[in-house]
Amino acid sequence: VQLQASGGGLVQVGGSLRLSCVATGDRFSINDMNWYRQDTGNQRELVAGITKGGSTKYAESVKGRFSISRDTAKNKVYLQMNSLKLEDTAIYYCEADRIEYGSDDVPVVGRSWGQGTLVTVSS
Q: How far apart are CA 12 and CA 83, in angstroms?
């Protein structure tokens, strides 16, 4: 399963961006989908997550400003980011907890990561 993230860019403080991520591949299903971020010198942190059933979770630092959603039929996940702050500057990665089925139909559980998309918030 491959993940392709998009939507990053340069935005001023207080602005908004919407990140998108799509999963592609053969014979797979996806459970949870998440967005992580990592800036220079820090560990990758979970920003938001959404289950297959639509339950969501957020890091305290983004609650009330970010919103995660998904289109399960299209294997897409989105992150709407509003009221952006300087400290939101980071590379954002989408991640999917997935099950792949090989030619023998044996399910293989794993995680797939997107390539990252850079979000830069300027003053």
A: 9
